[in-house]
Design brief:
alpha+beta; 2 domains; 3 helices; flat
Amino acid sequence: MRDQADREQVFALPAPNGGDAKLRQALASFFNTYFHPIHPVRSEHIALTAGASDAIENVIHAVCDDGDSVLVPGPSWRKSHATPLPKHF
């Protein structure tokens, strides 16, 4: 049986600055080996998040300016099919 520290590590959120370096390197190696991209994938090209919502929010913060709106097609948490969301949630 795992001790408390091992359990906490298993259920930990991704490390800052893109996530666990070993996992990002393994993913880059996998992509390069099996997909043969035109430009090699490096671990710096990969960012790990705790889920899709977190990833989408990170992209929105990276590409939008204050006051911009984003249309998010359904399904969403609201009942509409497309929801405009301000950048600052």
